[in-house]
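Quick one: structure for this chain?
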Amino acid sequence: MTHARRTILVTGAAGFIGSHLVDRLLSSENTSVVGVDNFNDFYDPAIKRSNLERALGTKDFRLCEADITSWSDIDSVCRQNRFDCLVHLAGYAGVRPSIEQPILYEQANVRGTYVVLEAARRHSIPQFIFASSSSIYGFNCKVPFSESDVTDQLVSPYAATKLAGEVACRLYSRLYRIRILCLRFFTVYGARQRPDLAIHKFSRLIRDGKPIQVFGDGTSSRDYTYIDDIIDGVVAALDYHDSDFEVINLGGSHTTELRRLVELLEVGLGRKALIERLPEQPGDLPITYADVAKARALLGYRPATSFEAGLEAFLEWFQGDVHARDRAGIKRLHAGN
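Got it. Here's what it folds into:
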């Protein structure tokens, strides 16, 4: 069966998740992609540019350096193309930095979302996919987290901006009949992960023999989701047409404690971690854990990568194949538990 050709706009295209999505979309012969990124200095812009090296070598990709908070920038991009879907991944991420810079997060994540939603409305883009976050669940007492849970226990400005984005998406879907899916991502990791995120940051510090900061007693746990599984979910969302609005969890649907993460990294890197123990920080959550029943039912989503296998793949990207023998110990450690 031959599918009609489609053109997709991806904001935040040079980022960790965005660049992986762009590569996956371009692997289809029936898809053209326009990527938007402003290459801000939240982390080294050179890293983001390197993320798009493969895509820039293809005929079906075009990069637009534009700011999602600028109406003239986004309007100009949309005037030049007719898009079948807008995937909105751009914005500032991270709980702790949002506590320090809440206005910056509000500008990028709330205003930016309204700008791209308005672009979708004015330029008749029929489908919109919004990257939301598991941080919306906050101090949720019920696990695993379900899309029907009340979200009134927020603990960071970042979470508040993502919830505001979901509210805006629901409004635009209702008013303008845009088909919108809000996908709540749970702690995504893998190759190209941002250098400030725990797995990448810890790996770098352990490798270099520097101390890592562990907040709390190490029993906090996260639903780590491998990048390929997340991209599977986003791509499946592109083909979902059964309702005008949905909120859907995309997670690994299993949890790993922080102390277990450190243990696995020690084995994979062949070095003992130097640990600096600190009190729990504002905004930190004791657990994130995704109920993915809805994603399974609506999108056919089935996360396939165990945390141990995903971490091994991350370490292969992180340091090449120099320590493959040491990383094999991750599997042995897992098998012994």
